[in-house]
Design brief:
By secondary structure, this protein is an alpha/beta fold. The chain has 14 helices and 25 strands. Helix 1 packs across helix 2, helix 2 packs across helix 3 and helix 8 packs across helix 9.
Length: 498
């Protein structure tokens, strides 16, 4: 169990640094004391084995202590994004059925009121210090999905309904160990920056949990914005490993160029979560002092599936070869197995891969077949095993590293009486990689403006899910079977922005 590994880490060198937060280093002993107090409080509330704890908190030592306490008591940690929107969050909680919801004291009172009205027990914690707050909750049926569950990550799902990815302690540990085997420059004396949100699988497994397993230290930041604070933190704390998404890399590179600076002391710069633009590679290398190595992951794989092992063997434009113990197949969209090297839909299996979505048998039948998982990504694999992502069969739009499911946005637009049909695709964007764009067919005789529909979405969706532009059309491209051809619309947007 990961809690046993973390406890050994904390007791092995009690005076060594554990994590940095708000200009202060916490020793392993300091963090152990914090975690013990949180554990005692959570235990006193009645929280026990098989219960789920929903947590809406920014990266912080208190959030880490809540995670460890949940695991010590045999529970399941469920990190959530407070900005996901009230309706989506309530649907997710109905799926997870948590013992309680832990909120940062910065969460808006309106959200807490909505959760309380829906009969969820809430507790507010200060991310910067734990003052022995009392947890309270309601015992839910113990989770029999898997006795060794560690974490459940939640997404909107491809239909707009919540979808959850359960991962066991073994899934996470295998993925971490595979990363350490695959990327030899990661060493116990490293210091890793933890700025990716920990409700995101990349941020949670690699930035948050991996340092404990590696016997390293981590530098915690609650947010990447503004980038100037991140750069100041890097200069103050001197991390050896930066783990970012390409959007963050782009922001930081531009700022360092304006300041005429090159960062020093960085050994590894690793990016994933979205496509990296090879055209800025020379600028990135000049700004960070090292070349960027690109990787690829998906929540269902815990999450890292592939990464370029080190700069000297990277292939720019690829996400590197698969990690140890991942088996790969290329298949046609009809399921026919294709040869490697070649192109096709990427399927995988291995000990890092989840056994299936949380209480979603119909989706599992679509995505899991005989132990193989359909990533939904269309890729090219070369003769050396290096993977290039060509397209996303699942139509996910990635906005600054965050997944936007078109069907969720389309469902909101369809609620407007003036909208007969809406289709949402990703539009290239220099800052965030992609942004949503909607093609809308109006209801006959109805009138509505782009601004009115954007406002309608802003009131119902997280900001990064709101379409940045809306194009009114008379018809949409269809296949012979009547299926909307999103790829045609995406290609149209790429040609416009070429």
């Amino acid at each position: 169990m990961l809690n046993e590994i973390i406890d050994r880490y904390l007791t092995s060198k009690p005076q060594a640094n554990c994590c940095w937060f708000n200009h202060t280093w916490l020793s392993r002993s300091d963090f152990m004391n914090l975690a013990n107090r949180v554990t005692d409080s959570l235990r006193a509330s009645g929280f026990s084995h098989g219960q789920r704890l929903a947590v809406l908190m920014p990266n912080s030592p208190v959030m880490l202590a809540v995670m460890l306490s949940t695991w010590r008591l045999g529970g399941v940690f469920c990190p959530l994004n407070e900005k996901t929107g009230e309706l989506s969050l309530l649907k997710t909680l109905d799926l997870l059925k948590p013992f309680a919801v832990v909120l940062s004291d910065n969460v808006k009172p309106e959200l807490e009121n909505a959760l309380t009205k829906a009969h969820w027990s809430c507790v507010r914690l200060n991310p910067e210090k734990f003052t022995d707050e009392k947890f309270s909750g309601t015992l839910q049926p113990a989770d029999d999905f898997d006795k060794t569950l560690a974490v459940i990550f939640s997404t909107s799902g491809t239909t707009g309904d919540p979808k959850a990815v359960p991962l066991t302690h073994s899934n996470l540990l295998d993925n971490i160990n595979a990363c350490l085997e695959h990327v030899p420059d990661l060493q116990p004396d490293d210091s890793l920056i933890n700025v990716l949100p920990n409700f995101h699988a990349f941020g949670f497994t690699i930035c948050c949990v991996l340092p404990f397993v590696l016997d390293a230290t981590q530098i915690l930041l609650a947010s990447f914005m503004p980038p100037s604070n991140v750069i100041k933190t890097i200069e103050e704390t001197k991390p050896t490993v930066l783990l970012l998404v390409p959007t963050m890399v782009g922001f930081a590179t531009s700022m360092l160029e304006r300041q005429g600076k090159t960062l020093t002391g960085i050994k590894l710069l690793i990016a994933g979560g979205d496509r990296y633009n090879p055209k800025i590679d020379d600028r990135v290398t000049a700004a960070f002092g090292v070349p960027l190595i690109e990787g690829y992951g998906i929540t269902e794989c815990s999450p890292v599936l592939a990464v370029n092992p080190k700069p000297s063997v990277r292939k720019l434009g690829t996400v590197g070869p698969a990690l140890p113990r991942f088996e790969l197949q290329l298949r046609s969209e009809d399921g026919e197995i294709l040869p490697i090297p070649g192109e096709g839909v990427l399927w995988t299996r291995g000990p890092s891969v989840t056994s299936g979505y949380y209480h979603a048998p119909e989706v599992n039948r679509e995505r899991f077949i005989d132990g193989w998982f359909n990533t939904g990504d269309y890729v090219q694999i070369d003769s050396d095993g290096y993977i290039k992502i060509l397209d996303r069969v699942t139509d996910i739009i990635i906005v600054g590293g965050f997944n936007v499911y078109p069907q969720e946005v389309e469902a909101i637009l369809a609620e407007h009486p003036a909208v007969s049909l809406a289709v949402v695709v990703g539009m290239p964007n220099n800052i965030s990689g992609e942004v949503p764009k909607a093609y809308v067919i109006k209801t006959q005789g109805a009138e509505v403006t782009e601004g009115e529909l954007v406002k309608f979405c802003k009131e119902r969706l997280s900001h990064y899910k709101v379409p940045r532009s809306i194009e009114f059309v008379e018809s949409l491209p269809l296949s012979a079977t009547g299926k909307i051809l999103r790829r045609v619309l995406r290609q149209k947007e790429r040609e416009k922005n070429a």
